[in-house]
User: What shape does this take?
Amino acid sequence: RVSPFVPRAFFWLLALLAASLLWAVSVRLSGREDAALLLLGAAAAVLLQELCRFACFKMLKKADEGLATLSKDGRSPISLRQMAYVSGLSFGVISGVFSITNILADSAGPGTVGIHGDSPYYFITSAFLTMALVLLHTFWGIIFFDACERRRAGGLGLVVGSHLLTSGLTFLNPWYEASLGPIFILTLCTGLWAFSTAGGSFRNVLKCLSCKQEPEGQAMLYSALQVPPE
Assistant: This one.
């Protein structure tokens, strides 16, 4: 059985392949690899990722319509919000794997971090940055799918803009205070936005936290999770 992560992650890999080819052609034609070309390459990679996210949405939308046609009650067994969550999480996981693999390989040695005056927090900050990107892709997937479904250009623009901003902030490294701080603030704000988009509310959080080990509290929890009690 194929994991639902695989086809979604494949779209991110397509974006990575297209960005790599674009970078190789740009370097060959220009004959240079300066900071300006690197910034343009990062922006192009972000736009390609969002384009592939849109292609993933269109494919899943078609699949949702097909499942609804085959079902007895005329409704798809998988909601669009579930698809958005899985798509965003798969984008984030595959992005995190590719961003952290080379760093983990370098951590095995033989060099010593900070021996020449560089920051000794390179590996720990890279781990936190990867965690933030995984969460951001998950949140972006939820917001992006909802904006596409409701035809809200503003939501799409904010997702693309925040993605570009996050990518641009990484160029401030190794000045980690200027990059990690804003990225984590952006992650928190985007998470709250995605929570609201998915239908969450502060009242529901309080209800969930107030559930106690009592029959009524357990019934409320089972109902919220859509799990039948044993």
Summary: The CA atoms of residues 57 and 145 lie 6 Å apart. The helical segments are 5-30, 35-70, 80-107, 122-150, 153-169, 176-197, 202-209, 215-225. The chain has eight helices and no strands.
